[in-house]
Amino acid sequence: MTGYPKHLRDPAASPAPGAPAAAEGAGVASTFRPELQGLRAVAILMVVCYHIWFGRVSGGVDIFLLISAFLLTGSFARKLETGSALQIPSYWIHAFKRLLPPSAIVILGSLAGVFLLLPEERWRELIAEAVASGTYWENWLLAFRSVDYYAADHSTASPFQHFWSLSIQGQVFLLWPLLFALAALAAKILRARPRTVMLVLFAAITAASFAWSVHLTATDQTFAYFDTRTRLWEFSLGSVIALVLPSIERRLRYRQADGAQGVAALRAGAGWIGLALILSAGWVIDVEGAFPGYVALWPLLAAALVIIAGPTGTRWGADRLLSSRPLQWLGDISYALYLVHWPLLVFGLVLRDSTHASPKLGTALVAASIVLAWLLTVLVDAPIRTSRSLRASWWRGGLVIVTSLALILGTTTAWTRALDRQEQELLAEAATNNPGAGALAPQYEYQGDASPELLPPPDKRTSDWFALSGTCADHGVPDDLAQYCGFEGDGSGPLLVVAGNSRDEQFAPALFETAKARGWDVMLVVSGGCAFSTGEPVPPDCNAHNQALMSWMLELKPDAFASASTFLPAAGPDAEQPMTGIADLQQPMLDVGIDVIGYRDMPRLPRDPFECHETDGEDCRIDVAEQYLPENPQPQVTVGEGTGRYYSVDAVEEMCPGRVCVPIIGNVFVWMDGSHISAAYARTLAPAVDGQLSAQGWSWG
């Protein structure tokens, strides 16, 4: 997504090897085609306007990807056909010394915006995204976080989210030269034409990647959107076009030279059809819900039509519009414009406390984006591009890359360490300042600071998930359960296992804190959505998971096993119900001598606890009494002599005193969201839970 370097506009200029905007022709001669620069401008305008004004996805990014590979392939194809050295390290240095400095400036500016405008609870996740953006794996980070790229409210989006496409592009800029080297080797071994080998190679990549894209888009569209593998065909299609275009061009020139003037009109008409299809793609097809599967063919084939139409020699062809000075200028700043428009949109919406840009705000954002993009191009990109000293030595170009990365990584590392120190200081004072559930004890008297910091730290309040640091690899865990299993301990103590879904995961510290303090090993086996049950409320595919878990427990024979014994499927009246089939799962474990702990499910809040706290402050109270049955329903298990014992835990009162939930207890945020308590608060439940177990005869040994 880079602008075309001005010094390459001269057809006689030697193209920089593999530059993001290298000369277009795939033949031996280098001829600059200004209509492609204009096509860049159209694509970037679509991206910016669709994002800012319409809240839609245009398909313009996909056109950028295709053009990038088209240009890159032309440069390397010329080298292979003329027998020139590929100089792959030089290409990498040349490309990334151009790409990284503008990216670093925008990333650092966005980090400043994060610090000044966004809440602290988002800082860590956005710092991680800044690192991923600067090191070209932001797309994978977003894929595994399952980010909704189509969220209508861009004020909640990441200011780094648009780096997903630049990350894929950077990965391809690393991979493609290696593929050209492979093609060169294969051509030498097979004694074949390099162009033929390259064409077969990129056609195969196109077919394989397109098939995977269609499949994954149909099964997991959110992940597919950011998956490099589903996008490779968009690049390889550009490479295929670059490789076959010289042959097409020769035929078209021959026809025109032979007097078939209708060919020029046909090319001009094809260019306008392609441009019309490009401009209409975001409105006519479901770009949001179906990309990047087969529907991505629309903008890409439309762009291919414009590329193949090429210079028409007519006065009315689309190439005349695309070659106009305004579009050429926008093409020059297209890379910078893509970089700056998204963070400006995100921060602009935050400042206006809005979810959509009004026409007035949208116009201001577009104008500001263009101005900033021009400044970034003139002040950063152009000096680097035109510097003779940087071209004279590879190490100077490498120094630009290292400096850019150092600015990004140095800033993010320093910020992360500051957050770590803040968290350590909070935890060091937690026993005094943050009693959590301990503040509910009848004789408790607060001895801490007058205005203590609250736990969890701001950057973890909406993501305070509990996890164990080790794996279950040394405990015979079946392969189908290994990914769900965590372990801590030295392997010599008694073993306590907590299992279930994410709500069990968040309750686990209430048991594990005391267990670890008494020398027990602890194990957590959780799968999102899979409560430890034989039927509803879990999805059908969880039954196999739970049966495998129970079979392993009977083989492992831990000293104690704990899971929820009741379930609240919704935040409504009389929602509590005994966990389906819980007795059938617990009884076999009791029969082989495993002690079983069944705890009552945590409430579900009908309101977001953080929104409630910010809106109502100290008066925020949520009554959940109607969610629960009058008495804790106990599973009908049989406990005989020589079997394990059954213990019941009801910590609802410690989470919501008097069945009334409040956001903060004892200077600790109780809730992470409306369905999960925070790990920080769960840890403070340990004394109360231990008291209930001790009252029933439990002994930690």
TrEMBL record:
Domain Acyltransferase: residue ranges: 35-377
GO-annotated biological processes: lipopolysaccharide biosynthetic process
GO MF, any single term: acyltransferase activity, transferring groups other than amino-acyl groups
GO cellular component: membrane
Residue span, SGNH domain: 480-689
InterPro entries, sorted: Acyl_transf_3_dom, Acyltransferase_3, SGNH
Entry-linked Pfam families: Acyl_transf_3, SGNH
Transmembrane helix keyword on record: yes
Keyword Transmembrane helix tagged: yes
Record field: transmembrane: 60-78, 99-118, 173-190, 197-215, 235-252, 264-285, 291-312, 333-351, 363-382, 394-415
Keywords recorded for this protein, A-Z: Acyltransferase, Membrane, Transferase, Transmembrane, Transmembrane helix
Protein name: Acyltransferase
